[in-house]
From TrEMBL:
Its cofactor is Fe(2+). NCBIfam families: PRK00150.1-3 (NF001159). Binds 1 Fe(2+) ion. It comes from the Bacteria. The keyword Metal-binding applies. It holds the Pfam family Pep_deformylase. Gene3D superfamilies: Peptide deformylase. Keywords: Hydrolase, Iron, Metal-binding, Protein biosynthesis. This is Peptide deformylase. Its EC number is 3.5.1.88. It is an enzyme of class 3 (hydrolase). InterPro entries: Peptide_deformylase, Peptide_deformylase_sf.
Length: 164
């Protein structure tokens, strides 16, 4: 089992859009294994490749019994509204209410280039949206506004972490 070190807010890799995967080889297989191993620790729901320092479009998820990964994911459908607490492994100690779609569908491929689709509601929908945001170089705190944003920024300063 290989659990990779997490990159934290302030690391430029988190703000750089990830490149599409073009080589479906042993390197990709190793990345997928590392993503799955790293997300499997307790308290983790999703992990984008750039959170472990790899600027390729892939993420893993482990939410309420749904477990897997998607390479070159695209968020293709959303519906409804779902407001709830959100956090991020790359922004430790900070959580905030964040409005997301209540339903989300992501399409992409597996490590062999075969089509895959993942869809879900509630926390799985939140995770799918959160991880696809990461792959575009975005953090969940970027979309916070008003008092939600001010409170998150205050927690970031108190934790000694750089702002977005």
């Amino acid at each position: 089992m290989t659990v990779r070190e997490l990159r934290l807010i302030g690391d430029p890799v988190l703000r750089t859009p990830c490149a599409p995967v073009t080589a479906f080889d042993d390197g990709l297989a190793a990345l997928v294994t590392d993503l799955m191993d790293t997300v499997s620790l307790p308290g983790r729901a999703g992990l984008a490749a750039n959170q472990i320092g790899v600027s390729l479009a892939a993420f893993s998820y482990d939410v309420e019994g749904a477990r897997g990964y998607v390479v070159n994911p695209r968020l293709v459908a959303t519906d409804g509204e779902y407001d709830g607490e959100e956090a991020c492994l790359s922004v430790p100690g900070v959580h905030a209410p964040r409005l997301r779609a209540a339903y989300a569908r992501v399409e992409g491929v597996d490590a062999f280039g075969r089509p895959v689709a993942v869809e879900g509601t509630g926390e799985l929908a939140r995770c799918l949206q959160h991880e696809t945001d990461h792959l575009r170089g975005e953090l969940y705190i970027d979309a916070l506004t008003g008092e939600r944003r001010r409170a998150a920024m205050r927690r970031l300063r108190e934790a000694g972490l750089a702002g977005p």
